[in-house]
Amino acid sequence: MTIPVHIVTGFLGSGKTTLIKKLLTHTQNDSTIVLINELGEVGIDHLLVQTVAENTYLLANGCMCCSVLTDLKDSLLKLLQQRKQGEIPDFKRVIIETTGLANPAAILNTIHHDTHIKNQFYVHGLSTVVDAELGHLQATLHPEWLTQVVAAHQIILSKTDRVDLPTQQLLSEKIQQLHPEVNIQFINQIDCVDDIFSQDLAQQQHLSRPQFFLKTQQDQHAMTQSCVLEWTTKLDWMVFGLWINLLLKQYGENILRIKGILNLTEFDQPVLIHGVQHCLYPPEHLAQWPWEDHYSRIVMIVRHVDLEQIKKSFQIFMEKLN
């Protein structure tokens, strides 16, 4: 029997990893394998998911739709081999989390048409997580948002607690104008992996009109860069907060994503930070460190920003004020 693959996509910071953590936390079996694709030299999301589910694997550094489709194929086939040899537990389904900049059309195309993949796996469905607070802005600024929405079998609206009902309704109407067939769900309606796999979404719709980037959009997509900022000693939260707020004020919408784990003087345990564009969300305290050296590491994904300037400003601030 072929194995169902469900793809979870959505723009940077929309809440994909949070959703997957929630699903796995409320699922009392290990029959689901999770593959997470991240941008940047340091993978953070898969480490967060591994705290609730060991069957979580990181795909190679790079955007899945651009550079690691071969790695996706190899990873899926390797899972089958490892299962056959008893190196990993038996699994009956796969969840793939893409980067926030992925165009799902290329991923769907690989699973549907690759000779080695299509006889072993099939696309069960594609869920796109849409940030209810920033969806309108992202639709205007980022071509990736449109391709992710148009390719979806299901839209999952996240962060609905941060906006009023009329804003949610306007965003839902915009999505349905773009994709009339799509099913729209709220993130609080989905609690476990079974909720994702309960209906064969790909069979229900004459989906999809997955779009590849136009030439102008490809150029913009290619201009996206990532970097990792690292600090080996403890950071002062007030100093770091001042730096990050000045950075967001200066570059604003060009800072697509910030995610990091900090070693702060004020706390013994690591602190997770994450933000999207102008919005920096409340920090979260983690129970344990995901890496042994306890260094602070921040992954930044930007567009039309000089990364060297960011690195330089971070270094100057931390050296002078810490």
Describe the secondary-structure layout.
Elements: E1 3-10, H1 16-25, E2 32-36, H2 45-50, E3 56-58, H3 69-84, E4 93-97, H4 104-113, H5 115-118, E5 121-131, H6 135-141, H7 143-151, E6 154-158, H8 165-178, E7 183-186, H9 193-197, H10 201-204, H11 215-222, E8 224-231, H12 237-251, E9 255-262, E10 271-276, E11 279-280, E12 284-285, E13 296-303, H13 307-321
Parallel strand pairs: 1-4, 1-5, 2-3, 2-4, 5-6, 6-7
Antiparallel strand pairs: 8-13, 9-10, 9-13, 10-11, 10-12
Helix pairs in contact: 6-7, 12-13
Keywords: Chaperone, Hydrolase, Nucleotide-binding
Function: Zinc chaperone that directly transfers zinc cofactor to target proteins, thereby activating them. Zinc is transferred from the CXCC motif in the GTPase domain to the zinc binding site in target proteins in a process requiring GTP hydrolysis.
GO molecular function: hydrolase activity; nucleotide binding
Q: Which second-level CATH architecture of the largest domain applies? A: 3-Layer(aba) Sandwich
Distance between the termini: 58 Å
- What's the total helix number? 13
Biggest sheet strand order reads: 3-2-4-1-5-6-7
Helix content: 25-40%
Computed Rg: 20 Å
**Averaging pLDDT over every residue, what do you get?**
78
For the record, the CATH class of the largest domain is: Alpha Beta
Q: Can you tell me the overall shape?
A: globular
CATH superfamily of the largest domain: P-loop containing nucleotide triphosphate hydrolases
Low-confidence stretches: 40-53, 60-68, 204-210
Number of strands: 13
> Which structural class do you get from the secondary structure elements?
alpha/beta
